[in-house]
Every structure is written in structure tokens, then in C-alpha cells.
């Protein structure tokens, strides 16, 4: 057996030297002693690549397998055989070997060769620190602590991992780039666990506990290969939803998903948002109506131009199961043009009762917002900019109307002043139970509508202020 393995090693080295003149390939080889199955699989994950997930099935020949990986990028790899699996990091130029007796993968040190020090370091952090636990392990651990004790525990685990990365002899042998990646990932791991506590216990955390969370940089392009960054992103979106919904349970899952989409769009960018959307649809699909899941799948397809995630998610949505759409949800998806009637009115800054029919003969661009809505506040400068692009006559005919659903009138008035919002200011208190939300079927904010000069709601999901097509659409209804 040892002679066969030595021969295989020699052949891989020859191939490695040949390809080295063109690129820096990595060689993987292994032996499952007394193997009962005839295939191993290896999945490569690299979110910096055009194809971030690649899976290979490798046939065992006399208990041996091999793969010459042509890559110029670092990648996470998952080796699988029968019920056993192994996670390791592969860098260009590595020459790794995995050898073990059938059924003894976890009981031995299976990895050797150039680059195996990275694996040893990763394994040491995994075994000695609370790092990248399974979902079940994390949930069980969270139930054992109160928030103050949990914060101390997580902090100590973080410092323990950082000490291994900086000072441990195993860490010295690992590559600098891998250590830097793990150093970032340890921070994401820490903040993911802090936010996971809040989400599981439905508890709004004191600001003091969240001090320093900006150290876990959001949308950091150099963190695409961090294992915990995607867990952190999900926990952050879930926590912001918890806060904005005032810690109240949300009975309609389709509407809940839309609210999370609004939050995620305001926080995550590019690939991070795409990954979040893909994972969230897969996770929540059984709880969504088929109409809702299909709607969110269309959004994923529009963003996923390279079809990285869409095919897999589409199969999950197609095969179900799904919950039935609520009557309210069906109404939202089938409602088209309609007029504003006399039954809905709001208060202006002077305390007067105002009906939108008062503005008949004008084009209205309506912005539904609240002082506590981060995305709403973020779009206000764009709203002011688009208004300034109108000429004098257009400003007289196209009115910008801001309807706040704030429960707190003082917060509404203060935010208008703080943000310098220009236009017609109206108030419909009550948050999601406000008259505005109930009448116009508002289930997420910011939300925009256009009402024409005849009082018809011609677009009840109008473009945002920063959308390039908005100005032309407003002018179309002004002609």
C-alpha cells in the first residue's frame, strides 16, 4: 500500500511541476484504508470566484483518490466520505494528503503535506474555542446563559482564539493570509453569537453591549471567505427586524419576509445581499405562501445574473411545501388602480385634518416613512435632490407628500427638522396599525406611491427617489 501511495505522490508532483509554469495548482490526494465505499466527494467554496461552489465526486481506485486543483484563489473545502466529513482551507500551491482508516477520520490526524499547518490551526481553534458551532449546539448553549454572563463567555472565547492565532506554535506555522482571515472571522463569530442571543430570546440589547460592533465590517470585500460573516449578516438583519417591529410577533410570514427584505437591502450590498436572499428564501420557503415565495424568487433571479444560487432555490420553491396566502395578502397581490376617497385623512404640522383629495389636480409623489426606519431616513437626501431637479412650473404641479406612521408625534416633528424634509408633511400615528397602513395595505417602508391629477393611484409601488426612472414617470403624469 505504501508503495502505491508513494507512486501516486510522485505522479502528482510531476503534474504539479508541469502546471506550475502556467499557474499555481494545488494537489489533493488521499487514502481510505479498508474502504467500503468507492467514492469520496469534495466541495470547494470560494465566494470570490465566478462559480463559488464546485463539487467533485472522485472514484476510489485501490482505496486511493486524487485531484489536481487548478486555482489562483484560496478556497474552503469540504471532504466527505460516507458519514464522515472534514473542513479545510486550500491555497494555491498546497499539496495536501488525507489518509485514515475507514471509520476513523475524527479519531486520527488525517491531514499532512504542504498547507496542513492551516488545517492544524483551524482544528485547534475549533476544538479549544466556541467557534463556528452547529445551529443546535448554539441554541442549546444560548439557553444556559443570561445576557451579561453570555457576553463575558463570548468575549473570553474570542480572546482565547485570538491568542492561539497570535502566539500559539501551530499558528506560527500557518500562512499569514489564513491567519488574517481567521482573525476577521473570530470577530464575526463573536458578534454573531451576541446577536443570536438577542434573536433567540427576543431581547433588545443595551447599546453598551453592542459598542464596537462596527469592528465586524459589513460588506467587507476581503471577508468573502470568512465562514461566520454570513451567519453574522443573517443575525444582524434578524436583530434589526426585532427592533423595528418593537419585539412583537408577526403572524403573516409573507409580510414579515418583505419587511426583512427592506432591512437587508439597507444593510447588505452586492454578493452579501445575494447570499442572504438565497439563504433566507431556502430557510423560510415552507413558511411562505407559494405566491410570496415565487415573488421573492423572481427578485433573486433578477439579481443572480450568473445563476449561482437561483437554480437550487427555484427547485426548493417549486417542490414546496408552502402555506396558504392570507386574505390580506391576496388582496395586496390583486389590487390595481383605485382612487383615494373621503374616508382617509391625516393631520398636518398645524394640526389640521387633511384629505388627499384636497390636492386633486396635482400629481402626488407619496413617501410613507417613520422616524425609526433607517432606510426611510437614508433616502431623504435623494428625495430632496429629485425635487430640486423639477423646474418652477413642475414644482407647482408635482407635490411631494410625506406620510409618517410614527406613533410618537414628537419623534415625527423632530425628524422632519433633523432631516430637513421639504414638502407636505402628514401624520398617521399607530406604526403598522395606522390608518395609512391599513387603507393603503402598507406592509413595509419606505413605500412610495404616485397619484395622478384625477386622484387615481396609478402606481402603488412607485420607484424610490434614487431610481433614475422616477423623474420621467412623474413628468409623464404631469403632461
In short:
With 479 residues, the protein is of the alpha+beta class. The chain is built from 18 helices and 16 strands.
Descriptive report:
Helix content is 46%, strand content 18%. It has 18 helices and 16 strands. It has helices at residues 2-20, 116-128, 135-142, 147-167, 169-173, 176-201, 207-210, 229-244, 253-267, 270-284, 290-303, 310-319, 327-334, 374-388, 392-397, 409-419, 435-440, 470-478, and strands spanning 26-33, 39-45, 53-59, 64-69, 75-81, 84-90, 95-101, 111-114, 338-339, 346-348, 353-354, 363-369, 398-404, 424-427, 447-451, 456-459. Strand 10 (346-348) and strand 11 form a beta hairpin. Helix 4 (147-167) packs antiparallel against helix 6, helix 9 packs antiparallel against helix 10 and helix 11 runs antiparallel to helix 12. It is elongated, with a radius of gyration of 28 Å.
The major sheet is characterized as: 8 strands, mixed
Helix proportion of residues, in percent? 40-55%
User: Within the largest sheet, what's the order of strands?
Assistant: 9-16-15-12-13-14-10-11
- Shape descriptor reads elongated
What is the number of helices?
18
Kindly estimate the percentage of residues that lie in beta strands according to DSSP.
Answer: 15-25%
Amino acid at each position: 500500500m505504501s508503495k502505491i501511495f508513494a507512486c501516486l505522490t510522485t505522479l502528482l508532483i510531476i503534474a504539479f511541476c508541469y502546471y506550475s509554469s502556467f499557474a499555481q495548482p494545488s494537489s489533493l490526494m488521499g487514502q481510505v484504508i479498508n474502504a467500503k465505499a468507492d467514492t469520496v466527494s469534495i466541495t470547494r467554496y470560494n465566494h470570490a470566484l465566478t462559480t463559488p461552489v464546485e463539487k467533485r465526486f472522485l472514484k476510489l481506485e485501490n482505496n486511493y483518490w486524487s485531484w489536481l486543483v487548478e486555482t489562483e484563489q484560496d478556497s474552503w473545502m469540504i471532504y466527505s466520505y460516507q458519514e464522515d466529513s472534514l473542513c479545510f482551507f486550500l491555497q494555491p500551491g498546497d499539496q495536501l494528503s488525507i489518509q485514515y482508516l475507514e471509520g476513523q477520520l475524527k479519531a486520527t490526524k488525517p491531514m499532512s503535506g504542504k498547507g496542513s499547518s492551516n488545517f492544524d490551526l483551524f482544528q485547534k481553534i475549533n476544538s479549544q474555542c466556541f467557534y463556528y458551532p452547529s445551529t443546535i449546539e448554539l441554541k442549546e448553549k444560548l439557553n444556559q446563559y443570561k445576557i451579561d454572563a453570555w457576553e463575558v463567555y463570548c468575549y473570553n472565547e474570542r480572546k482565547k482564539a485570538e491568542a492561539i492565532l497570535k502566539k500559539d506554535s501551530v499558528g506560527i506555522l500557518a500562512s499569514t493570509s489564513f491567519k488574517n482571515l481567521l482573525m476577521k472571522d473570530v470577530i464575526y463569530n463573536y458578534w454573531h453569537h451576541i446577536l443570536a442571543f438577542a434573536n433567540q430570546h427576543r431581547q433588545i440589547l443595551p447599546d453598551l453591549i453592542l459598542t464596537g460592533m462596527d469592528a465586524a465590517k459589513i460588506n467587507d470585500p476581503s471577508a468573502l471567505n470568512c465562514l461566520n460573516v454570513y451567519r453574522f449578516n443573517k443575525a444582524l438583519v434578524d436583530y434589526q427586524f426585532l427592533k423595528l417591529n418593537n419585539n412583537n410577533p408577526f403572524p403573516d410570514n409573507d409580510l414579515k419576509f418583505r419587511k426583512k427584505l427592506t432591512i437587508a437591502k439597507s444593510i447588505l450590498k452586492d454578493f452579501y445581499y445575494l447570499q442572504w436572499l438565497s439563504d433566507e428564501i431556502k430557510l423560510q420557503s415552507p413558511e411562505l405562501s407559494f405566491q410570496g415565495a415565487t415573488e421573492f424568487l423572481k427578485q433573486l433571479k433578477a439579481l443572480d445574473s450568473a445563476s449561482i444560487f437561483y437554480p437550487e432555490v427555484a427547485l426548493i420553491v417549486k417542490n414546496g411545501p408552502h402555506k396558504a396566502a392570507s386574505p390580506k395578502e391576496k388582496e395586496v397581490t390583486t389590487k390595481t388602480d383605485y382612487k383615494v376617497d373621503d374616508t382617509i385623512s391625516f393631520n398636518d404640522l398645524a394640526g389640521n385634518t387633511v384629505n388627499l383629495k384636497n390636492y386633486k389636480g396635482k400629481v402626488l409623489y407619496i413617501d410613507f416613512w417613520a422616524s425609526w426606519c433607517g432606510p426611510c431616513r437614508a433616502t431623504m437626501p435623494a428625495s430632496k435632490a429629485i425635487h430640486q431637479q423639477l423646474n418652477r412650473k413642475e414644482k407647482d404641479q408635482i407635490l411631494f407628500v410625506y406620510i409618517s406612521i410614527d406613533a410618537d408625534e414628537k419623534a415625527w416633528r423632530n425628524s422632519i427638522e433633523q432631516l430637513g424634509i421639504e414638502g407636505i408633511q402628514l401624520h398617521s400615528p399607530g406604526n403598522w396599525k395606522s390608518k395609512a397602513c391599513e387603507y393603503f395595505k402598507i406592509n413595509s417602508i419606505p413605500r412610495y406611491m404616485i397619484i395622478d391629477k384625477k386622484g387615481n393611484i396609478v402606481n402603488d409601488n412607485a420607484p424610490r427617489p434614487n431610481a433614475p426612472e422616477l423623474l420621467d414617470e412623474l413628468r409623464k403624469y404631469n403632461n
